[in-house]
């Protein structure tokens, strides 16, 4: 069973990617109010998927190393 534990040190070691992740998530959260063009929405969703996969891999690596 995969049990990922939230480790804030991973997020703090990548400050630029963490800020992009938070900004991207917030922008997509309020998309119904802002109404982005479709192309920008696709770019934002793909960026969020990439950052989620990046941090997921980093969290998995640190947990499997312990």
Give the SSE layout.
Blueprint: H1 8-12, H2 15-29, H3 31-34, H4 38-65
Helix pairs in contact: 2-4
Describe the structure.
- By secondary structure, this protein is mainly α.
- It has a domain at 24-65.
- It contains four helices and no strands.
- The mean pLDDT is 86.
List keywords for this structure.
79% helix, mainly alpha, 4 helices, 66 residues
Structural class: mainly alpha
Q: Calculate the terminal CA-CA distance, rounded to whole Å.
A: 16 Å
Low-confidence stretches: none
How big a fraction of the residues is strand?
under 5%
Largest sheet: none
Measured as a percent range, the helix fraction is over 70%
- The averaged pLDDT comes out at 86
How would the global form be characterised?
elongated
Gyration radius (Cα, Å) is 14 Å
Count of DSSP strands: 0
- N to C succession of SSEs: HHHH
Question: Helical region count?
Answer: 4
Transmembrane segments: 12-30, 36-57
Keywords: Membrane, Transmembrane, Transmembrane helix
């Amino acid at each position: 069973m995969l049990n990922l534990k939230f480790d804030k040190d991973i997020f703090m070691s990548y400050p630029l990617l963490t800020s992009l992740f938070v900004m991207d998530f917030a922008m997509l959260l309020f998309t119904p109010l802002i109404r982005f063009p479709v192309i920008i929405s696709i770019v934002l969703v793909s960026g969020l998927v990439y950052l989620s996969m990046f941090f997921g891999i980093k969290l998995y690596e640190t947990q499997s190393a312990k």
